[in-house]
Design goal:
This is DUF427 domain-containing protein. It contains no helices and ten strands. With 113 residues, the protein is an all-beta fold. The protein has one domain: Metal Binding Protein, Guanine Nucleotide Exchange Factor, Chain A. Strand 2 and strand 3 form a beta hairpin. It is globular, with a radius of gyration of 13 Å. The model has no long low-confidence stretch (mean pLDDT 95).
Length: 113
């Protein structure tokens, strides 16, 4: 793993909410810490209501994690563009986050319950 990135199991139960909907709840979430950036919680896809998420055309690249694809959140009341991201084929050093989705804190509420 890149020396400045750590991935560990996130203690407890984590929930993600947006647009008045609970998008997921997990006891199997991962916490990724990268340098001085705030930690990010990655939810396993199996623990998310993927029907609320629609993949967009947005893509970004990280030299340490690989290429990220983005998801918009669609609820009855709102569409939140590019609210989450996932590394479909992450670099080997961070392969634990494969099949997981993370969310921007400005666009979705991620909290430990």
């Amino acid at each position: 793993m890149a020396e400045h990135i750590t991935i560990r199991e996130a203690d407890g139960t984590w929930v993600v909410r947006a647009g008045g909907a609970v998008l997921g709840e997990s006891t199997r979430a991962l916490e990724l810490t990268e340098g001085d950036y705030p930690s990010v919680i990655y939810f396993p896809r199996e623990d998310l209501a993927m029907a609320f998420l629609e993949q967009t055309d947005t893509v970004s690249s990280c030299p340490f994690k690989g290429n990220a694809t983005y998801y918009s959140i669609h609820t009855k009341s709102v569409v939140i563009e590019d609210a989450g991201w996932s590394y479909e084929d992450p670099k080997e050093a961070v392969s634990a986050i494969k099949d997981h989705v993370a969310f921007y804190p400005q666009k979705a509420a991620v909290e430990r319950i």
